[in-house]
Amino acid sequence: MSRRKRRSQLDTIDEINMTPLMDLTFLLLIIFMIATPLLEYSIDVSPPKMNADKIEDKKSETVNLLANGQINYRGQIVSRDNLFKILKNLKETSPGTMLFLRADGDIAYRKVIALMKEIKNSGFSNISLITASESK
């Protein structure tokens, strides 16, 4: 006569059911895959207040980026290549010159950044952006 072991409610469970754990893992993975790109583009950026003091005009030059994408330097329209040559020469002859960039408010941000990159390649590492003061 063989003895049969019957399981009672008091016996411990010696196995872990992995199915709910795997379901939870995949659910969290999907949530993070969807949420991570959204976090990258939803950064709240508050621009600084535009009430800076008047800048002393020691040795400074201003480059203007017009609404139509043209570059104005010292009252003349110049191409990007000519601006690069002019600024490189200016940096070599007068290294202490401060450079300001004034861009039209309606121009795309990527165009301003592209011009700043070209100015940086000409040798100027510190470029200041000129903004208009807000009326109170």
Q: Count helical runs.
A: 3
Kindly state the mean pLDDT as a whole number?
A: 78
Shape estimate: rod-shaped
Uncertain segments? none
- Main sheet: which strands, in order across? 3-2-1-4-5
Helix content: 25-40%
| Corresponding CATH architecture of the domain at 60-129 | 2-Layer Sandwich
**CATH topology group of the domain at 60-129:** Nucleotidyltransferase, domain 5
- What class, by secondary structure content? alpha/beta
| The top level CATH class name of the domain at 60-129 | Alpha Beta
Kindly state the number of beta strands. 5
**Oligomerization state:** single chain
Written as H for each helix and E for each strand, in order along the chain, the element string is HEEEHEHE
Beta-strand percentage range: 15-25%
Spatial gap, N to C terminus? 99 Å
Largest sheet: 5 strands, mixed
**Over all CA atoms, what is the radius of gyration?**
32 Å
Structure description:
With 136 residues, the protein is α/β, with parallel strands linked by helices. It has a domain at 60-129: Nucleotidyltransferase, domain 5, CATH 3.30.420. The chain has helices at residues 19-41, 80-93, 109-121, and strands at residues 60-65, 71-73, 76-78, 98-103, 127-129. The chain has a five-stranded mixed beta sheet. Helix 2 crosses helix 3.
